[in-house]
Amino acid sequence: MDTDDLGLFGPGSVTWKVHDEPILIVAGLRSLYLQALHPRAMAGVAQNSNYRSDAWGRLVRTGTYVDTVVYGTTAEAERAGRRLRALHGRLRATDLFTGERFRIDEPDLLRWVHVTEVESFVGTARRAGLPLTDAEVDGYYAEQRRAAALVGLDPAGVPGSAAEVAEYYRAVRPELRMTKEAAETALFLTAPPIPWKLSRPARLGLSLGPPRWAYFGVAGTALGLLPPWARRLYGGLGLPTTALSADLSVRTLRLALTALPRNWRESPIQQAAKARAARLAAVVA
What we know:
single chain; mainly alpha; 2 strands
């Protein structure tokens, strides 16, 4: 029964431990900055997405997908994966350097998006202060191969440990560069339109209201958490002090977010999963 199903991971997994962290909102933004540095992946997004006109809607949809994979039942996660594979299977883009038409569900592109996401999630959580052993980090990467399978990847071809992720980045770095599209996307990610209800101070004649300043802080932290080689591609942000400042900021932000009531920082999908887990634990006890 779905009511007794704890999904692909469950309460004893490293995945649940990592994704219980509200600081992953910063991790998601970090992954987008990284993904923009892959010209072919960036072309796929730019030519098939309405992220500029519906930035917050796209963010909500992406968050709902991740929550469904992590906290939904097995059937819900598999259904979400089928929908995403069907969508990606219909989309094509043009390589701006070669003129070649390509499918955006090419394994190399799917792998890039997957690795940047999961490395951002576990890396940001750890740098923010979540206590994770090296074995747990490797366990997280291994668990996330199940999520990779949902988007159409062969789990055997997906990095399943920190060492394999590091080797993957070393191999893919020659393909990365700062393109016009990447620069425009990074600028958009750093200063996106704020939803109307949050931007009312600006509409009343103030150029930057509190939500805008708060978002700038989050974006700056996400940029500072990038690997040094990625910060250098973004224009010399590879100084060690940048990483140190980002570490201090992300730890402070984590403390602030974890102080919020759980019903403010947990999605309905996450709350439902925890309720199922608690119910099943009570039955076993």
